[in-house]
């Protein structure tokens, strides 16, 4: 059987249905899953184990049999913990078939076949009764269904159903409760992910400021969660305006209601400033009295137990609909609203008592300006980066003449606006708006002379940026588009950027390696079946694939010098043959070679470039600073351990990299 997967074609920029082996989806799911990261989360695992032991003891002390329901068992880990803790029987429910199969194998391998029944169903399909999936209702409910926003993976409706149909009243729940915390901050950096700041353009006839239209100014944005590794946000990048306060909590041992709700807390600003952002995270108490606590609190929050790195749970950044000034000591109300799956926030000034009694219901944010649908958060940040814009302005000023006819090919780009302000006479742009700027709603290969009013293009520009790009080199679509419009270009056309270069560096990750590293034994349970499954899925493709990661969130150190490995000349058309390179890169520092990082640098014009990857190596130790608006490509080496260079022996990594011009994809191979 074959399945079809939607994917952007990097040579056409279009979404296409690609026929894949039926196992493709499942392998992607496993290979890119967070299971490995969860199994490496020692803090989470030990606390679950403590909480489960305590719950089993409480039930036993009451003289009852301990019957456990584990919803979303994954590898079966929490059920095995329960069985080891003395539970009489466990029902382990898992909806994802490959995982349920793995759970059966792992449970068997660890000798719990008689104690744990794996049920491959969604929990809402599970039946109870003599002929049902479960003989009787459970008196211990164990789950781990949380995402960074706590409720985004549907924990609330799952709990609601379980309490109604699958567990006894007064059951023990592990975790017992979750609490969501918030802190109000001002942060130009984070605010730049949500609003377009004025753009300053130094033109020959003086400074001009491009401002965003008012519907964009006042747009509440989109409700999708912004989850980041907040611990990588330097304290200088935000100003704390309030203490940390509890926003709401959920008791999982009682009937949980998933219906929409709102909560309101009073905040007394500790500092005057502009309220822009609500930072949020949660913790879970594994036991009723809260002695066993697992928290996602960021580094500046005191009393945080030993820090645990994890990628499956991070912290949330919520954007208030508008920035509002707050004054130190003058109380304000923060309102949180949620539906079944997401949370959003609004600030209320404390005015009349009456008005404040009702926690006014706030509508879920809906983008009215379109920009939040076109630009995601990192893209907003990129467009607000004045240094980057400065490079484009400098380059445009170099190439634009008063009689230039320009074509811009990029998604949601401000280049036409910049060029217009810099005096370009006429500007054509594929896919966008404005007056002096003509938007051509066609694909490059379908561009007609009539679209261009029979003019030839003298300046072709692009950032390049395309919303469908996943990996850095997917923006080479610009090159394909340039090739497609060749017949419309003058013989002396200027192409901006004129070329691009692919760079590569070998790195040691501080933590990110965990997400692709086998776990072996987890809390005494053999989970190698899972390791093998992940390895098998990673190797499913003949050659492994690089994956995109925003490396500003994932500290690493460089083990080699950065190296330019391939160049792409946009002044020429895409060649027929593929571009390939081979070589070796010396390891200069001692460390574990976890993988190679690859990124693109665009040469806009002579001596002017923009870099989407490594900004600098900041110290002797090799710590790296990355472009904060872009994802870089990470190619994890399959064996890490072997790659530690011997003390006195300089070692090297050999590579072979091939850019297939037919597919627009890059395939690579490394040998240590
Ligand atoms: N319990 C494991 C895995 C947690 S990941 C551990 O702690 O290591 C959550 C798992 O729950 C995923 O495998 C997902 O497929 C499954 N899941 C989520 N909601 C579910 C539901 N309502 N019914 C059954 N499985 C569910």
Commentary on this structure:
- This protein starts with a strand and ends with a strand.
- With 672 residues, it is α+β, with helices and mostly antiparallel strands.
- Helix 1 packs across helix 15.
- The radius of gyration is 28 Å and the shape is globular.
- The chain has 15 helices and 38 strands.
- The site of S-adenosyl-L-homocysteine has 18 residues, from helix 4.
Name the features:
globular; binds S-adenosyl-L-homocysteine; nucleus; cytoplasm; SAM-dependent_MTases_sf; 672 residues; 5 domains; histone methyltransferase activity; alpha+beta; Rossmann fold; Arg_MeTrfase; Hnrnp arginine n-methyltransferase1; 7-stranded antiparallel beta sheet
Lay out the secondary structure.
Blueprint: E1 2-8, E2 15-21, H1 24-31, H2 35-39, H3 42-61, E3 67-71, H4 77-84, E4 89-93, H5 97-109, E5 116-119, E6 138-143, H6 155-165, E7 167-174, E8 177-186, H7 188-191, E9 199-203, E10 206-210, H8 214-217, E11 226-228, E12 239-240, E13 245-251, E14 261-267, E15 273-285, E16 293-295, E17 315-326, E18 332-338, E19 343-349, H9 353-357, H10 371-374, H11 377-383, H12 386-399, E20 405-408, H13 415-421, E21 426-430, E22 437-440, E23 457-461, H14 477-484, E24 489-496, E25 499-509, E26 521-522, E27 525-526, H15 528-538, E28 547-549, E29 556-558, E30 563-569, E31 579-586, E32 595-605, E33 608-611, E34 614-617, E35 624-626, E36 632-636, E37 652-660, E38 665-671
Parallel strand pairs: 3-4, 3-6, 4-5, 6-7, 20-21, 20-23, 21-22, 23-24
Antiparallel strand pairs: 1-2, 8-12, 8-13, 8-15, 9-10, 11-17, 14-18, 15-16, 15-17, 18-19, 25-29, 25-30, 25-32, 26-27, 28-36, 31-37, 32-33, 32-36, 34-35, 37-38
Helix pairs in contact: 1-15
